[in-house]
Amino acid sequence: MTKRQLTIVQLYPDDMNIYGDWGNVLTVKKRAEWHGFEVELIDYNVGDIFPESADILIGGGGQDSGQLKVQADLQKLAPTLQALADDDTPMLMICGLYQLFGRFFKTSKGQIIDGIGIFHAETHAGPERLIGNIVTHNEQFGDIIGYENHSGQTYIDSNMQPLGTIVRGAGNNGQDETEGCIYRNVIGTYLHGSLLPKNPAIADALIEEAAKKKFGDFTPTVIEDRFASKARDVALKRPR
Ligand code: GLN
């Protein structure tokens, strides 16, 4: 019997991939395989032809300069990405791409880098970088553990859900106790680290949504997450 296949598309790995974000792609790939799927991994970089099928999209963070490099191409992809998002395709966008999935990022020099507005949110560079270990809480995923490093302060509109509420750290803007944003199955977050090795519940949720959408069902394998649990315990004890 041929295995059921999921296609993961990694957005802009050449320019937007920092602080271990690549680990998110590896985690989803490995866990999807453990759950019984065959995984096709496609890199999409500036100027590429967007793949015909994309079951899960993952994007990382980057410098302001990386965001500038991808912004024009991202605008071209906007209708495709919006349609995929509206159609419940699971996506995970970290930091720099999280910002550009909102309306815009205004840099410390006052330059506007346009986003695509899937998240009703906007980001303004603040006076100091928000850096350090961070823990947030989400009802479905429990404690979410990671590392943040961003100048941007993101404000999500009142019609949007944050990913988590702050337990420790700064999050979206250091003020309103929110972190990240969720639109349908699209998750945006500032958490690097990588995020998913330490938060396998989020990886499995992306896989589950993709499988249900494509095949109508999902039967998880019970994965022994001893090392993920250990990593979580250690990360929780790290200083800010
Ligand atoms: N350049 C953005 C900021 O500093 C994104 C940083 C990142 O992706 N780590 O806000």
Tell me what you see in this structure.
This protein is of the alpha/beta class. It has a single domain (5-237), classed as Rossmann fold, CATH 3.40.50.880. Helices cover 31% and strands 31% of the residues. The chain is built from six helices and twelve strands. The protein has helices at 22-34, 64-86, 95-100, 195-198, 200-215, 226-237; strands at residues 5-11, 38-44, 56-59, 91-94, 104-106, 112-114, 121-138, 142-156, 164-168, 178-179, 181-183, 186-189. The strands form two sheets. It has a six-stranded mixed β-sheet. Strands 5, 6, 7, 8, 9 and 10 form a six-stranded mixed β-sheet that branches. It starts with a strand and ends with a helix. The relative contact order is 0.17. The model has no long low-confidence stretch (mean pLDDT 97). The structure holds glutamine. The site of glutamine has 12 residues, from helix 2, helix 3 and strand 8.
